[in-house]
Design goal:
CATH superfamily: P-loop containing nucleotide triphosphate hydrolases
Number of domains: 1
Distance between the termini: 15 Å
Strand order of the largest sheet: 2-3-1-4-5
CATH architecture: 3-Layer(aba) Sandwich
CATH class: Alpha Beta
Largest sheet: 5 strands, parallel
Shape: globular
Number of strands: 5
Oligomer: single chain
Structural class: alpha/beta
Length: about 190
């Protein structure tokens, strides 16, 4: 089983790249489990999404905590051994949304306790590009989708990615270029 993680800021292309990678792998007759977080198939993922649209510190903390439980639930209940590849979208970088210094503490704790991989990709989109994509694609924005929040979240998440085993991919590039770079790493 090969474990792949695709993470990054909002509008960095995580879901798009994960779906493209899964299609690529399935076209090569590989079995693939895809987990998107926050997920829609359980209480914790649904609550994490709901709190993303609520303002205030308690909602901020609640969305991050529900998100982390959603990811842990995915790790615990899915039978990974039945698949050639497991692809997780949003994994450890959700901890960057916690207030400082909890973000680094939670990241380090989870990085030591959950499975990691040499195939962990951080899609590094510039805040301006992410904000442009959000404005073009979404009617309602989540609490972290202002330009100011995107700048702050990128700084925090990139700092975490640089201290760990992440492959950082410049995600302002075309969808095809990013997909090709991910595929090169996965099939190497």
């Amino acid at each position: 089983m090969v474990f792949v993680v695709i993470d990054g800021l909002d509008a960095s292309g995580k879901d798009t790249q994960a779906l493209r990678l899964c299609t690529f792998l399935r076209d090569r007759r590989k079995t693939v489990l895809l987990r998107l977080h926050p997920s829609d198939d359980n209480f914790f993922g649904v609550k994490a999404k709901q709190f993303l649209y609520v303002n205030g510190k308690s909602a901020h903390l609640a969305s991050a905590l529900f998100y982390m439980v959603d990811v842990l639930r995915s790790i615990l209940i899915y039978s990974w051994r039945k698949h050639d590849y497991v692809v997780f979208v949003r994994y450890l970088m959700g901890t960057a949304y916690l207030p400082s210094p909890l973000d680094k503490i939670a990241y380090n704790f989870f990085a030591c306790t959950v499975p990691t991989s040499t195939l962990m990709f951080f899609l590094d989109v510039s805040p301006n590009e992410a904000f442009k994509r959000i404005q073009a694609a979404r009617g309602t924005r989540e609490r972290f989708e202002s330009l100011e929040e995107l700048v702050r979240m990128r700084r925090k998440a990139l700092s975490l990615a640089l201290t760990s085993n992440w492959t950082i991919i410049e995600a302002d590039k075309s969808v095809e270029d990013v997909a090709d770079e991910i595929k090169r790493h996965v099939v190497a």
